[in-house]
Each structure stands twice: as C-alpha cells, then as structure tokens.
Design goal:
Blueprint lengths: L2 H8 L11 E5 L2 E4 L4 E4 L14 H11 L14 H11 L3 E6 L2 H19 L3 E5 L8 H6 L3 H4 L9 E4 L4 H7 L4 E6 L2 E2 L5 E2 L2 H13 L3 E5 L23 E4 L10 E6 L19 H16 L2 H22 L3 E7 L2 E6 L3 H11 L2 E2 L1 E3 L3 E4 L7 H18 L1
Parallel strand pairs: 3-15, 5-6, 5-7, 7-10, 10-11
Antiparallel strand pairs: 1-2, 2-3, 4-12, 8-9, 11-12, 13-14, 14-17, 16-17
Helix pairs in contact: 2-9, 3-9, 10-12, 11-12
The structure holds pyridoxal-5'-phosphate (PLP).
Pyridoxal-5'-phosphate binds next to helix 4.
C-alpha cells in the first residue's frame, strides 16, 4: 500500500489532506515521492523559520542522538537550562517551562493564570474573538472561534471574549474578577490580523492597573517571524507570560512558556509537569535554531526582505481588484481575497508546485523561511502573480 492508502486506512481522519506525499526537504524546497520539486512559502505550517532541515539543526540532532535523547525531569539533563537561559535573555527576566507544542505552552500559561487568579479570588480569563490558541479542551475554550468549540462542550468556565482591536469591546469584558488576558499581537490563523499599537498598549496598561496577567501567544509570531525575535517587541510592551512553540525547534517538537520573575513562583513543585518537556533532543535542536538566527544575522537581514515582499504584494493589490487587503509584518503576510478565490488560489498553487496556506476562509497566508533567498522569494511571487491572473 502507498503511504496515502496506509494513512487513510489507519490514521484518524481529522485532517483534510492534499494528494501529495513529501519525502525530502531542504531550505525552502520540498520533494515529493514522485521526485517533483515544490517551493514552500508555508514551511511546516510555521515551523520553518530557518527553512527545512537546516544543516546546523541536522548536525545538532544527529550529534545529540549519539549522546542522550531523553531524561525524566526528576534529574538534571543536557541543554534544558542553557536553552531556558537563551530564551529568557531574548525575552525578559523570568523562568521557562518546557513542553511539546503550542497548545501545551498555552495550557501551562493558563494554569499559572488560574493558580494566581484563585489566590486573588478572581478566576476569569479573557481572550480575543478570531484568536487561535490550540486544540486541547482548555485551548479550544481560549480560542474565540465557535467552529473549533462546536460539539465539544461543556467548555471551561469563566472564559469570556472581546473583539480584536476594539478597545470598547475589551473594556466591556475586562472587569475586576479577570486574572489574565491571552492574546496574539498578530492573529495568524484568524487571517493575519495585526493588532494596533493603541489596542495592544491599552491591554498592557489595563492589565497592569488591575494586576491581571498579560499572556502573549507567540507560538506563530515568535522566533523572528515579524522581524523582531518576539512580535510584542514591535509594541514597546513587556508581557507577564509568553508562549512559544512552532519554529523554536526547527522541526523538532518543543513548546515553551516564559513566566516573568514576579509570577515565576506560582507553580510549585508538583503543580505541573510534562514527561517529554525539556527533552534533550528538542532542546539541543532549539539551541541550534537560536544560534543560526544569531550567527547568520537573520533578524538584521529581514527589513530588506520584508520590504521586497510587501512592495510586491501591494503591487498585486493595485493590479487585481479582487484583493481586498494585504496585511502583515516581517515575513508574515495575509492577502484577503473576495469570495472563494483564496481557496481556488491555494489549489492552483499546488498544481504549480508552490505551497501557500488559506486561512479564515478567504485569506492567503504566507510564512516563507526567514532566510529564503531573494531569488526564491521572487520566484514564488512570480508564480503568485500568474495565479492571480488565472483566477481573476
Ligand atoms: C499553531 C498555534 C497554536 C497551537 O500550537 P500546536 O503546536 O498545534 O498545539 C497556538 N497558538 C497559535 C498562535 C498558533 O499559531
């Protein structure tokens, strides 16, 4: 049986899949089992900030596999403390809890929030509509979209929602019994909606006034995606908790929750755990990712690439009237199209061996590798232009 036949027969059908199997990847390129080459503008669904199978990550993983793969957390092991230190250096004074995914990173943040809230007698948590925070029971509750919650109730109690970028809507739900606000400063899955300076700063100010935690979900926007290591840096604020995952491990599963010093003692021994959390292999891979970003000066090189990308996307908007809006920051872009054009675009792109993503029904989302060459970026944009002509 082919991989497709085996998958369809034995793997739960929770995903709708395209009829192509990829067996090899390097940088911004993928190869199918038929030997066909694809350009990837959405590497690994947001995990590929330094491209697929970066040589430094490969070397780190292979080397670590020859030493030790995993130690339980009742002992010290290699690389966990070092990685936590590097992450804290990039963020703010605090400490890190390691897990394996974005949802788990958010679960940990929520447990800190609830533990804190219950001490203070205020259990409420608020999040934005059209947000995305994961697929576990707690994180679908935090995700302000009915389509992810439908059929799975009862959800967590004491969670309320506000409209993204609406100060009045936020003020309506943010009352005295709220212990935490969780937010993406740029909503990814929700259609690359960029938080305004005014809105994000307002939330920081209100949470500070009421001593509520500001939790920023950087699972998609972290590790340099928007041009700064964390997207919140663009807003001149410092959150209390930040969650990360996706690109942190360069393709190896890892999640991280950074808790600011002031709240770092809320979770005491025994209150939270993860068997694989801080796994030596994952931490070693993440250290390699952070080193590549630093040594290759990836963030320093981003403004030029970002300008190149958005200049071209804005030209598309002028040229094709069915493009409603172009949004984003750094190398995170959303292109909102009329009707079902985004989905048609996505299908056509696959036929032309270009991988993009269609989210929120009508938004093309692209997250090219941050170290993509200008030549490859241009090649993908040329294909995009071709498709815009075809679907017009
Ligand atoms: C992908 C994503 C998650 C969930 O991450 P998983 O690793 O799939 O659990 C949470 N928040 C945001 C913003 C994401 O983009």
């Amino acid at each position: 049986m082919s991989e497709k036949e085996l998958t369809d027969k034995y793997v739960l059908g929770t995903y709708s899949r395209e009829d192509v199997a990829f067996v090899r990847a390097k940088g911004s390129y993928l190869w199918s089992d038929k030997g066909e080459k694809y350009l990837d503008f959405f590497p690994g669904w947001g995990i590929g900030n330094i491209g697929h199978v970066h040589p430094s990550v490969k070397k780190a993983v292979c080397d670590q596999a020859g030493q030790i793969l995993h130690m339980p957390n009742n002992f010290y092991s290699s690389h966990q403390g070092k990685l936590a230190g590097k992450i804290v250096e990039r963020a703010f004074p605090g400490r890190v809890f390691f897990s394996n995914s974005g949802a788990e990173a958010n679960e940990c943040a929520l447990k800190v929030a609830r533990a804190y809230g219950n001490l203070k007698g205020k259990p409420g948590v608020v999040t934005a509509r059209k947000s995305f925070h994961g697929r576990t029971m707690a994180t679908i509750t935090l995700t302000g979209q009915e389509k992810y919650q439908k059929g799975f109730g009862p959800l967590l109690a004491n969670v309320e929602y506000f409209d993204f970028n609406s100060i009045s809507s936020f003020d309506e739900v943010f009352h005295d019994s709220i212990c935490a606000v969780m937010i993406e400063v740029i909503q990814g899955e929700g259609g690359v909606q960029v938080g305004t300076q005014e809105f994000i700063r307002h939330i920081r100010q209100k949470t500070q006034e009421k001593e509520a935690l500001l939790i920023i979900d950087e699972v998609q926007t972290g590790v340099g995606r928007t041009g700064t290591f964390f997207a919140y840096e663009n807003y001149g604020i410092v959150p209390d908790i930040v969650t990360m995952a996706k690109a942190l491990g360069g393709g190896v599963p890892i999640g991280a929750t950074i808790v600011g010093e002031k709240f770092a003692d809320i979770l005491k021994p025994g209150m939270h755990a993860s068997t694989f959390g801080g796994n030596s292999l994952a931490c070693r891979a993440a250290l390699a990712v952070l080193e590549v970003i630093e040594i290759k000066k990836i963030l320093e090189k981003m403004p030029v690439k970002s300008r190149f990308l958005f200049k071209r996307l804005k030209q598309f908007k002028k040229k094709f009237p069915f493009i409603k809006e172009v949004r984003g920051m750094g190398l995170m872009a959303g292109i909102e199209l009329e009707g079902d054009k985004a989905l048609r675009f996505f299908k056509k792109a696959i036929d032309k061996h270009l991988i993009v993503n269609c989210t929120a029904g009508c938004v093309l989302r692209i997250l090219p590798a941050l170290n993509i060459s200008r030549k490859d970026l241009k090649a993908g944009l040329d294909i995009m232009e071709e498709i815009f002509y075809e679907i017009g």
